[in-house]
Amino acid sequence: MPISPPGKRILLCALDWGLGHAARSSVLVRSWVAAGASVTLASNGRSLAFWKKEFPALSCRELPDYGISYAPGPFLLPRLLASLPRIASVRSAEYRLVRSWAHEFDAIVSDNRFGCAFADKPSIFLTHQLHLAAPAGLAWGEGIAERGMALLLEPFHEVWIPDHEDNGLSGKLGHPKSTKPFPPIRWIGPLSRFENLPVASSPWQGPWDVLALVSGPEPARTRFEFVLRQQLEPLPGRHLVVQGLPHLPATSEPSMDAGLHIVPHLPSKDLATALRGAKRILTRGGYSTLMDLEALERLDSRCLLIPTPGQTEQEYLAAHLKEIRGIPWRAEKDLSSRHIL
User: Fold this and answer.
1) Which domain holds residue 289?
2) What does 254-310 look like in DSSP terms, one character per residue?
3) Average pLDDT over the chain, rounded to whole?
């Protein structure tokens, strides 16, 4: 960082699958606006709501909803496979839509939206996952999936991976076995909206005995919040749950009383302050969240990672970080209050 803007007029698109894609792309937005570029944001759902709050002065456009939802545990993969026809349909629809806007822009950057590419202008795909983590017993299919990913990225001119080329946080996900089938790959380093964010006073600075970050697509997000409430409500101390719902009205400031405090969303500055003041952090462990915690120097034994059941990417990252850093993790079904404090 900083990464030079790929054009003077940039269309930046992000997948609405949790808030991570919009959150990490925000780093690029700030850098490019500071460099004098004109940036238009395009997404849907909670990601678009997040961007509208983070960048009220920027133009926003709505993209089709992929309509992906998680099924619990072992039903996740079958549900996703059943969604493939809809995903293909939405990909075609968003490709037609963004091509109709092409005359307004010099370049397009897409964070995990496969249909957001221009035919004859710089089109960049941003992802941390070129090598997919397969469920247990299906590791033989990872090479096939990697080649399939390369085919999906053929419309793009370049791939940006938010990680280091060597000793990366993403492990095998952001480091495919072979780069030859892909468009040119550029490792741009981790992206975090908290990078270089100055320490500032905030009513959210804590101290918090436990801070829990709720994220991800429905219905897994709601189920995770329910599990966290069950475990945190009886615990002594002062705890904070951030629901990851930026479309709901913000809470002005927390009560100083002990107990469980629940807020829909916190602006980046307040969330960074709250995380710095947390004794214990519970989180799903999506890659964007991990980059945020790394930027705050909080990606350590203070964290407890709780992967979305059946989401192999998060399960792999949790096991990877346990191996290289000793960061603990628990399956959601095994979470209990004795693991939290």
Assistant:
1) 210-340
2) --SSSEEEEES---HHHHHHHHHTBS-EEE---HHHHHHHHHTT--STTEEE-PPTT
3) 88
